[in-house]
């Protein structure tokens, strides 16, 4: 579904991604894990068109994404839940969700709203509240709900566990698993490696802009290399 | 080592400047109109260099420089007409008055981040104009006539040189570097122990002081002060000078001030066309070289000598060239 | 009714009329600032150009008001779009000072362009609407004043609807809050910014036509002072806030009318900037503004 | 008395509790690390220490050179720097368009013993101080191998040298407490190794007390004597590297491994 080939990204003089190659197959949950600064978010930003790679290829369902501006990538069915959630704090919960469906041509949002509210009842209670007044966990739910309003083919998630209490992290991850089971392909970037591996099918480990290890998530979860990459022992 | 070198430089430069001055006198004194243009060029140099201190070196955006010029002009004129105060003291009074006004305007606005300074300086210049128009004693809307014509090329020239010396000395010192740091990154500057607000105020007040000086020189040159001499459009003239000369380049300001003064005189008959051309030049420079023609670079003898070589090299990397600006936010 | 009171009420009506003009201009300032953090110095000149387009349109339409107004709004919108596209967009990732200088350049260009090609002198505005005086008790006002107020209120209500209820309006608010996040929603940020200029410019043009019919003369420099005052109004209301701009404009108009009514008329231009200095000293975020802090 | 004593430091951003009851006491010469996942509030702690943010609650006591104690809460960032607290930034904030040497000289700004008058009039004090600042800046650049880069515009330096320059600049303010915000970010393993050496070395050489934020566990575990772990604004663990490594709460926060008792 998504193919990334030999991707190179520079920020000023910094070589942030040094030839990353990976792929995501339809129906899978694929995770990119690695320490901060390894280039995980940069990879996602390149896929969504927010940063322009210097070289490489990104193809999504046969289409070359490098030629497509960011706002058009969304209408191809790629929804990105950004790091730090980035909800619109000045818009109400309902309006935030409507923004998620911005590119959809059909006017029939009610059903999808109902679906999102069913999954996140807290959001329905707070539908008239502005986003800025939500708690961290609620904001993350809103960010995911907002992305789901697109009915995406590929859901790209950047550190959904960031800044959340362990209990909430577990809740969010079980939701991600559910979303995948209902047919959405997921590319997940996570620092919380164990959590990510527990729901992923396949995983890539990034270290300073390179993929150093890859394999089925289950195998990686057992391997010592992950532990070492993270905890240094 | 640096010190001896710079000490040697001083007399050399002094002699060169004196010769230049004598040359100008010899060349143009037969024609009062040319003398006038030389005087204006010197006054505009004072204005441009002092505005560059605020906008180019400290990174603030003042567009009310003519307002300070107006304060200096009227205060100096009042001093010499009503109180018969000696010329140089009157000029000093005008400059000090402008500096005080700069302090009053600067303290509330420079604490704030962002573009408030632009609009505050503009508004302040307008208030000054309204106040002047309402003071009958200085002629109100009719203008202030009968100011003794004390200003001559000697004074404008000396003060222009003095302004350049003072401001370049300031910029090449620890307080001056603090201003540069504020321009580059206020948060980082504070983390280096620089009191950002203080240096913004210092630069702003110094700029206002020299603008006031320029105003005093101007009205004692023309023998008249008029509220329309210090409007927003006048401020724009100075802004164009520093944009053309390069924000943060003193030699650039001096060159551009002189050049633009002469060009403006030449185009006096085509006033509207001149303004149209100015505005287009301003926009084009910003679109292609946002930090001005020279950027923060200074003209040096070595640089000028090397120009042919540099031009040759300039042609090659045309791709991606031109936009050297930082990608600020 | 005592004459003191009736004079005062008279001034209030005049203040509302002037305030309507300032509010309409201030809205454009505040919208543009809110979305790209740029003080669009050329905004006052778009108002001026709007008034000129109205002037010629009135001749063409034989003086009917609404076609004149609409044509002026459309023409100014096109101008606003052009300016944004060619002068501001290329500078979006450059230091702010570059964009400010460019805005200043555009402002001077427009003034001198109109001056060169239409003429430097005052033009008498066509009497599109016949003036009739209306008297209620001791208070007298003209139908023009009512029309100005009514048109301004309608436009502001329309804008409120646009911003709060339509997809475009929501996108505008989203873009002003977080451009990257907006891109991730599939919002074409450049397009939304263009639309913001379009809406802001059309409101300014409406103000231009309204001023034309009220004080029936226009000139190439008519935009400078009202533009500045409207900016002050936007700061007073809280820059970036749409209701703030409306309120700020009204307060500004009122303050100026009161100075005219009770003090020396030559001080009218100073009041705006006195208000500005006071706002900056007391509450820099304005009446409805929210503080913006920088992320470190 | 400790050099730094932080008591119940808390801050809210629009209702979100970014940091809650952060406590830390540091003796002179200590090297302490703060770790925790992204968004745990680490940089926010630094921003409160340096006066960029004003805490909602709590106190920060610093022992000054003359042994007097001062509360840093409410002080401006530049005052705090002048009192001997220097920092680096997570996302490098050099004075991009200035030269390497100018960057370092700015750090000497508040120690210069002449003012605007001295600058304009070029008094003897000006020449003396400028010479001193010049020499001291060069000396520091030499120590860190940047001397031959002194006239380079700082934004043109390669990433690693930019990081080093930022460190030099912080050291030039002659701090007693140095705050390092993710010094290893974006570095490769070899660079990280050198960095760890360097951190230990500067601590001894400049007699510093160092507090550092880091994601690379390796760095923290090898360099720091004591570690604090933050998660969603709360301090969830504290201790020597060995204790932290085996602390189930930390493992959970980092790896998300569910530990038996959960």
Keywords:
heterotetramer; A: 233 residues; alpha/beta; 6-stranded mixed beta sheet; 4-stranded antiparallel beta sheet; 10 helices; 27% strand; globular; D: 262 residues; 10 strands; 38% helix
Order of helices and strands of chain B: HHHHHEHHHHEHHHHH
- What is the share of helical residues of chain A? 25-40%
What is the number of E strands of chain B? 2
Number of beta strands of chain A: 10
Termini Cα gap of chain A: 36 Å
The strands making up the biggest β-sheet of chain A line up spatially as 6-7-8-3-9-10
Please tell me the overall pLDDT of chain B. 85
- Spell out the helices and strands of chain A N to C: EEEHEEHEHHHHEHEHEEHH
Assign the structural class of chain B, choosing from mainly alpha, mainly beta, alpha/beta, alpha+beta, or little secondary structure: mainly alpha
Description:
The complex is a heterotetramer of chains A (233), B (329), C (296) and D (262). Chain B is 73% helix and 1% strand. With 329 residues, chain B is an all-alpha fold. Chain B has a domain at 2-230. In chain B, helix 2 (32-57) runs antiparallel to helix 9 (196-222), helix 3 runs antiparallel to helix 4 and helix 6 runs antiparallel to helix 9 (196-222). The longest helix of chain B has 27 residues, at 2-28. The model of chain B is unreliable at 313-329 (pLDDT under 50). By secondary structure, chain C is mainly alpha-helical. Chain C has helices at residues 3-36, 43-60, 65-88, 96-117, 143-165, 167-177, 179-184, 189-214, 224-237, 242-262, 268-282; strands at 123-124, 133-136, 139-142, 217-218. The mean pLDDT of chain D is 89. In chain D, strand 9 and strand 10 (234-239) form a beta hairpin. Chain D has helices at residues 42-49, 77-82, 100-107, 116-121, 124-143, 159-172, 189-205, 217-223, 241-246, 248-255, and strands at residues 4-13, 16-26, 31-35, 57-63, 69-71, 85-87, 177-181, 209-213, 226-231, 234-239. Chains in contact: A-C, A-D, B-C, B-D. The interface between B and C is large, with 50 and 48 residues.
In short:
The complex is a heterotetramer of chains A (233), B (329), C (296) and D (262). Chain A has 233 residues and is of the alpha/beta class.
């Amino acid at each position: 579904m998504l193919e990334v080939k030999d991707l190179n990204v520079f920020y000023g003089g910094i070589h942030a991604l040094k030839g990353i190659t990976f792929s995501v197959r339809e129906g899978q949950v694929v995770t990119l894990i690695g320490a901060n600064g390894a280039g995980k978010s940069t990879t996602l930003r390149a896929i969504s068109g927010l940063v322009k790679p210097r070289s490489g290829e990104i193809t999504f369902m046969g289409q070359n994404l490098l030629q497509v501006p960011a706002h058009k990538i969304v209408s191809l069915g790629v929804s990105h839940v950004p790091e730090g959630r980035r909800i619109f704090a000045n818009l109400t919960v309902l309006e935030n969700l409507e923004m998620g469906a911005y590119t959809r041509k059909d006017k029939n949002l009610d059903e999808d709203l109902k679906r999102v509210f069913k999954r996140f009842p807290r959001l329905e209670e707070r539908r008239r509240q502005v986003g800025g007044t939500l708690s961290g966990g609620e904001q993350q739910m809103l960010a995911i709900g907002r992305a789901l309003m697109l009915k995406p083919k590929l859901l790209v998630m950047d550190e959904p566990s960031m800044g959340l209490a362990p209990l909430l992290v577990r809740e969010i991850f079980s939701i991600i698993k559910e979303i995948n089971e209902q047919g959405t392909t997921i590319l997940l970037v996570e620092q919380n490696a164990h959590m990510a591996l527990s729901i992923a099918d396949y995983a890539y480990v990034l270290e300073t802009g390179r993929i150093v290890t890859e394999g089925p998530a289950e195998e990686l979860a057992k391997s010592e290399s992950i532990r070492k990459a993270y905890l240094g022992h | 080592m640096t010190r001896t070198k710079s000490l040697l430089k001083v007399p050399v430069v002094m002699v060169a400047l004196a010769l230049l001055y004598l040359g100008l006198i010899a060349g143009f004194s037969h024609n009062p109109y040319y003398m006038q243009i030389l005087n204006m060029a010197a006054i505009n140099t004072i204005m441009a260099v002092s505005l560059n201190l605020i906008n180019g070196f400290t990174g603030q955006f003042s567009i009310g420089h003519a307002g300070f010029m107006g304060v200096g002009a009227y205060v100096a004129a009042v001093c010499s007409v009503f109180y018969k105060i000696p010329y140089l003291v009157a000029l000093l009074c005008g400059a000090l008055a402008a500096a005080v006004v700069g302090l009053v305007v600067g303290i509330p606005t420079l604490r704030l981040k962002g573009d408030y300074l632009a609009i505050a300086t503009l508004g302040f210049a307008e208030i000054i104009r309204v106040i002047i128009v309402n003071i009958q004693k200085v002629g109100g809307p009719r203008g202030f006539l009968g100011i003794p014509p004390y200003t001559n090329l000697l004074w404008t020239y000396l003060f222009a040189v003095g302004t350049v010396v003072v401001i370049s000395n300031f910029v090449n010192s620890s307080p001056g570097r603090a201003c540069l740091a504020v321009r580059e990154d206020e948060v980082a500057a504070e983390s280096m122990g620089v009191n950002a607000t203080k240096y913004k105020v210092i630069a702003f007040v110094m700029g206002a002081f020299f603008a006031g000086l320029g105003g005093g020189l101007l009205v004692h040159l023309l023998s008249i002060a008029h509220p329309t001499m210090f409007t927003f459009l006048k401020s724009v003239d100075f802004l164009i000078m520093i944009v053309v000369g390069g924000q943060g380049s003193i030699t650039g300001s001096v060159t551009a001030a002189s050049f633009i003064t002469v060009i403006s005189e030449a185009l006096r008959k085509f006033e509207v066309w001149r303004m149209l051309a100015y505005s287009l030049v301003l926009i084009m420079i910003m679109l292609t070289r946002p930090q001005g023609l020279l950027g923060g670079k200074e003209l040096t003898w070595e640089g000028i000598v090397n120009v042919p070589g540099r031009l040759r090299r300039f042609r090659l990397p045309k791709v991606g060239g031109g936009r050297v600006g930082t990608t600020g936010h | 009714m005592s004459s003191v009171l009736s004079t005062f009420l008279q001034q209030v009506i005049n203040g509302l009329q002037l305030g309507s003009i300032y509010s309409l201009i201030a809205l454009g300032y505040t919208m543009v600032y809110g979305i790209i953090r740029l003080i669009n110095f050329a905004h006052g000149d778009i108002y001026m150009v709007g008034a000129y387009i109205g002037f010629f349109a009135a001749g063409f339409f034989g003086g009917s008001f609404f076609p004149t107004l609409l044509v002026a709004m459309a023409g100014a919108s096109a101008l606003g779009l052009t300016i944004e596209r060619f002068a501001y967009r290329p500078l979006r990732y450059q230091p702010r000072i570059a964009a400010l200088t460019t805005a200043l350049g555009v402002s001077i260009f427009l003034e001198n362009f109109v001056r060169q090609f239409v003429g430097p002198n005052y033009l008498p505005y066509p009497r599109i609407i016949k003036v009739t005086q209306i008297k209620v008790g001791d208070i007298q006002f003209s139908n023009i004043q009512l029309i100005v107020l009514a048109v301004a209120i309608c436009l502001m209500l329309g804008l409120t609807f646009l911003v709060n209820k339509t997809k475009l309006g929501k996108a505008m608010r989203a873009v002003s809050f977080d451009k990257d996040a907006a891109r991730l929603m599939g919002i074409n940020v450049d397009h939304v910014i263009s639309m913001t200029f379009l809406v802001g410019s059309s409101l300014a043009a409406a103000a231009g036509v309204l001023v034309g019919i009220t004080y029936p003369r226009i000139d190439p420099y008519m935009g400078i002072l009202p533009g500045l005052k409207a900016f002050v109004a936007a700061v007073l209301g809280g820059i970036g806030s749409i209701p703030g701009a409306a309120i700020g404009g009204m307060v500004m108009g009122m303050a100026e009318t009161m100075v005219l009514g009770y003090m020396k008329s030559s001080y009218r231009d100073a009041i705006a900037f006195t208000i500005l200095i006071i706002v900056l000293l007391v509450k820099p975020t304005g009446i409805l503004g929210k503080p913006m802090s920088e992320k470190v | 008395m400790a050099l730094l004593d932080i008591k119940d430091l808390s801050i809210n951003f629009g209702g979100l509790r970014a940091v809650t009851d952060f406590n830390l006491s540091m003796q002179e010469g200590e090297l302490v690390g703060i770790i925790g996942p992204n968004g745990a509030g680490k940089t926010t702690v630094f921003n409160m220490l340096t006066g960029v943010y004003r805490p909602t609650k709590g106190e920060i006591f610093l022992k000054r050179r003359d042994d007097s104690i001062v509360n840093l809460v409410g002080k401006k960032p530049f005052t705090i720097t002048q009192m001997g607290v220097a920092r680096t930034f997570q996302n490098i904030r050099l004075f991009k368009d200035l030269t390497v040497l100018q960057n370092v000289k700015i750090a000497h700004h508040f120690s210069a013993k002449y003012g605007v008058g001295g600058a304009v009039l070029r008094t003897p004090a000006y020449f003396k101080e400028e010479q001193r600042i010049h020499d001291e800046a060069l000396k520091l650049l030499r120590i860190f191998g940047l001397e031959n880069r002194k006239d380079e515009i700082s934004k043109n330096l390669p990433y690693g040298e930019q990081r080093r320059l930022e460190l030099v600049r912080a050291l030039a303010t002659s701090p007693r407490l140095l705050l390092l915000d993710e010094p290893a970010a974006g570095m490769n393993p070899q660079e990280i190794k050198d960095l760890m050496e360097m951190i230990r070395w500067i601590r001894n050489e400049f007699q510093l007390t160092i507090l550092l934020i880091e994601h690379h566990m390796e760095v923290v575990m090898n360099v720091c004597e004591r570690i604090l772990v933050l998660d969603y604004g709360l301090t969830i663990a504290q201790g020597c590297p060995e204790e932290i490594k085996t602390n189930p709460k930390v493992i959970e926060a980092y790896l998300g491994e569910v530990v038996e008792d959960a």
